[in-house]
């Protein structure tokens, strides 16, 4: 495809060069007629460097868009709970039971490590320990 072929196919989208020249001349004349600028250099700079654009709307209708979140925190939690209940059979009571099991499991681990350290200390009878449970063991 040639470089100008696209522009030739869509001529209706391009502005008419005669109207564009008239528009720029009219805008420049109206904008610079008053006593806005005192020096010719400033006028020349404004004419060559800046453009004034008038925007006309087809309609003055306004559209208001109100947004609200589709999922709030409560709906997310309820949906997750419902899915967990259906697919996994988990409910709130089950979660509390799992938490209680984990607490008891950690207690057993900690106390078994403490007992092993006490047994090591009792195995060395020459060392005095000021721990209250050790005095009752020996």
TrEMBL record:
Membrane topology term: Multi-pass membrane protein
UniProt keyword terms in alphabetical order: Ion channel, Ion transport, Membrane, Sodium, Sodium channel, Sodium transport, Transmembrane, Transmembrane helix, Transport
GO cellular component labels: membrane
Transmembrane segments: 84-106
One of the record's GO molecular function terms: sodium channel activity
Family matches, as InterPro entries: ENaC
Domain of life: Eukaryota
Compartment(s): Membrane
Pfam families membership: ASC (PF00858)
Family: Belongs to the amiloride-sensitive sodium channel (TC 1.A.6) family.
Protein's recorded name: Uncharacterized protein
Species for this entry: Notodromas monacha
């Amino acid at each position: 495809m040639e470089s100008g072929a696209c522009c030739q196919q869509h001529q209706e989208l391009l502005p008419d060069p005669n109207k564009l020249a008239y528009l720029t001349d009219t805008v420049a004349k109206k904008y610079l007629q008053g006593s806005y600028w005192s020096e010719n250099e400033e006028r020349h700079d404004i004419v060559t460097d800046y453009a004034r654009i008038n925007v006309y709307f087809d309609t003055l209708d306004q559209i208001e868009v109100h947004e609200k979140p589709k999922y709030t925190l409560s709906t997310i939690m309820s949906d997750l709970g419902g899915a967990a209940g259906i697919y996994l059979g988990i409910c709130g009571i089950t979660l509390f039971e799992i938490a209680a099991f984990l607490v008891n499991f950690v207690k057993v681990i900690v106390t078994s490590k403490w007992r092993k350290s006490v047994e090591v200390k009792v195995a060395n009878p020459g060392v005095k320990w000021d721990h209250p449970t050790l005095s009752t063991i020996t």
